[in-house]
Please model this.
Amino acid sequence: MATAYVKLPVGMTTAAGERAVQCQAATVAEALEQAVAVEPRLKPRIFRDDGRMWAGVFLNARNINALQGLETPLSDGDKLAVVPPISGG
Model:
């Protein structure tokens, strides 16, 4: 297990006012699961109703889709950032 941090999207904090959630996890999926347990409002910002991801998730500034997706292993000190899609007209 690695100690990693999930940075919350802009405008979201935990009940304690934190902008990130510290997790003990082996993979990105485990870290996101723990972050959602701490801050349930995070789930719809990352996942669609059918469970597929729709937000960008970055591990140390690299898109996890370019790595091993949700099964990407974590190391101590890793930082995950959740970036909801942006659209406009």
Residues 2-83 form a domain with the Ubiquitin-like (UB roll) fold (CATH 3.10.20.30). The radius of gyration is 12 Å. The mean pLDDT is 93.
